[in-house]
Write a structure and sequence with these properties.
The chain is mainly beta and about 475 residues long. Helices cover about 5% and strands about 45% of the residues. The chain is built from two helices and 37 strands.
Length: about 475
Amino acid sequence: MSKFRYLLGGAVAVGSIGLLAGTASAAVTYAFTNGNGQTYATQAVNSSGGALTIPAGLSLLVTGDAAGTTTTGNSFLLQFTLPTGVTFTLDPTISVTGAAGGGTGAVCTTTASIVKSGGGNGSNTVTYTVPTATGTGTSTCTIALSAFTVAGATGLGTTTVSTFVDQGTGFTMKEQISASSGATPSLNQATARTTGLAASTSALGFASSNLNAAVINVLPTSNGTKLSQAGLATTNVAFFDAGTLTTTLNTSQNATATGQFTFTGTTTTVTVSGNFTGVANAYLAPIGTVTCATTFAGKPATGITGSLAGNAITFTGAATGFNAAPGVGQPQEVCVYYTGTTIIGQNPFSSPVSATASIDSTTSPTVNLATETYNGTVQPILYTGKFGAYGTFIRVVNTTAGAVQAFAVVQSDTGSTGSAQVESALAGNSNDLVSASTILTNAGVTLPASGRAAMTLLAPAGVFFEQLAVSPNGTLTNLP
């Protein structure tokens, strides 16, 4: 006949302890709680090599429901089991407190009567023999586990998100009552119950927001050198608000669970990656500023000027003081400024501008910033005039129903630059063949002896370009 029921209560975290349903009765109830589950910083776990302190707070609440329940002379084994590979490095001790109804309480005994009977330091289990006492009806008592230390909890060094759950996943610890003596009561649990004991998270929080898509205008008068962006008061501007980056010291414990984990460094390094063709300058706004000045000259005095190298802009000294404010986000705007004369490289939806933050040996996951996309066709052409008798032409294909304009931005290998109109009103659904030399002449550029130059052809969406070589007999050859 069933004698007891086992109830799991309280919120616990990744890592666990558990009580499983055994027998049920109106006589005595048990509720296992973890009132002090901790979330550790993954950085702390890695620094300690998986050696952690688990604070006191694990307890078994026992309540007598029927006066005069006779348990004197009985005992049971109470065993706690850590995950595979994790061991105790300090024997936890058990204490008994209570009882609300007087005496030592239902199924409780004195602390001195409880003895460790197996496992402990160096093992992943610890077992206690617990003598029982006489229940007094409404009395309650608590069997509590002291703080203890463990080794080998390296799994918590890679967990980035975890919650306190009543499940057998994550970093867990099991509890089981078994081998009880005496026929009244029978305390055996058929299966151990598992519940959360500890959680972990990276102490470096890094997120992006305020992401307004930008459109690079390929038509006059911008010709791909300026853009328009939602949220800006004006259009066709030479700057890009890439979005807000927020750095947070996530609330998490050090390895000894004695306080908030903090980094050794006091600032982060932010690296923003993307296609930065046409970029002249960039800055990271001061903490709390989530807008950009209209020109780089308007940079706030405490803004951080970026270092541009290829496809990366680096901001050193970001998130100043974030270590001192656990759980409080530190927002900073990413502000990018273009030359206003060079065609802007696009960062489309498939490959937007992105960012990471780093401090000490920790680098955050990559977050995306705003996108920049052309509002038409942009086609680069590499030109050389050294084809002898062959002439070089640009074929313009208008697949739209309406007349279109097309333009070219030209840069000679001498450094000479210019622009020219290629089509003033090419009719819908028609094609044209335009001499490359005519475009170069109209752009006013000077070619070197090699005859080489680069053209970027611009037109509305639906217009396409290709480069052709035309032989003296009129044969057309596609050029790459």
